[in-house]
Every structure is written in structure tokens, then in C-alpha cells.
Amino acid sequence: VIASNALRRLAIESKLTKETKKYFAKEEIDQLRFFAEKFGAEPWIALRFLRDEWYFLRLDDLDKTGDNFVISTELAKNKGMSFKSLISGF
Questions:
Q1: Which residues have CB under 8 Å from 28's CB, separation 6+?
Q2: Are 72 and 23 in contact (CB under 8 A)?
Q3: Which letter does DSSP use for residue 81 in this model?
Q4: Within 13 Å, how many C-alpha atoms sit on residue 43's CB side?
Q5: Sign of CA dihedral 79, 49, 34, 36
Q6: Rounded to an integer, what distance in angstroms lies between the CA atom of residue 55 and that of residue 6?
Q7: Helix (H, G, I), strand (E, B) or coil at 43
Q8: 0.70 exceeded by pTM
Q9: For the segment 12-46, what is each residue's pLDDT rounded down to a tens digit?
Q10: What is the CA radius of gyration of the chain?
Q11: Cα distance between residue 77 and residue 81, in whole Å
């Protein structure tokens, strides 16, 4: 998803999972970062755990595990932002 106004551009990779953790390959994160840089956008991950709200996380907030990245429900709740927080001042 690409969202933009005159002040800010966001490149958002959206995922839904029924698990308590969501893993991302390094290549997937690298592609999002590259895509965002090309468009002058901020790269974000939007993740929704089944029967929970959406959490928006910066790539720097993801946990690294070996060559991959992971977001747990705990990490999402501690470091993630709600949609309302993400777009405040947008």
C-alpha cells in the first residue's frame, strides 16, 4: 500500500496471521526498504494477528533472528502503533 499527502509518504507491507509470530525473509524486508527509498517513502509493516487490531511497525523495530526478521504479538503490542497514531498529523 502506498499512502501520501503533501508532507509524508508511506510504503506499507500488510500481512495477516493466525500465528503468534510472523516471520519475514531478509529479502522481503530489503525489497520493501528499496521500494520505499525509490519513492521517497517511509517503509512500514502493518500486521494483524487473528482477532486482534492492526499494528504498524517501523523496520528498525523488527526483531532479527538469523537471516530473517520476526514480529511477535508481544513486540507488536509494545512497539507497534495503531492506525490512528500512524496517521496523526498526516
A1: 13
A2: no
A3: B
A4: 15
A5: negative
A6: 24
A7: strand
A8: yes
A9: 999 999 999 999 999 999 999 999 999 999 999 99
A10: 13
A11: 8
